[in-house]
Design a protein that fits this description.
Length: 118
Amino acid sequence: MFIIFVFLVLGILQLLMRWLLLDKEDRKARITDTMGESYYYRGGALFVIVIIGIAIVSFFGIFEKITIQGMYLVSLILVLIFRGFLEWKYLRETKQHQMTLILLGILILFSLFFFSLK
C-alpha cells in the first residue's frame, strides 16, 4: 500500500512541477522526439520486466513484504536515475532533468523515512 502511495504522490508532484517550473515549449519536449528514443523504450521495457519479476516473486511469497517494497523502491529510484540521465543528455536545454532530480531526491527521502520506521 505504501508503494501505491509513493507512486501517486510522485505522479502528482511531477504534474505540479511540470506545470510550475517548465515553460510551455519545454513541457512539449519529449525524449521520444530525440535520438535517445530507442534508449528510452529499452529502459522502459526493462523496467516493466523488473516490475513483473518482482510481482511474480511477491506472488509466491519468497520474500517478506518489506523486502518486496524495498525492491519496488530501488527499481523506481533506478528508473528515475536513468530518466534523469536521458533528459540531461538529450533535453539539456530544458529543465526537465532538474525536475527529475528533485523527484529522485524526494523519493530517496521517502525511502529513508520508510526504512527507518521498519
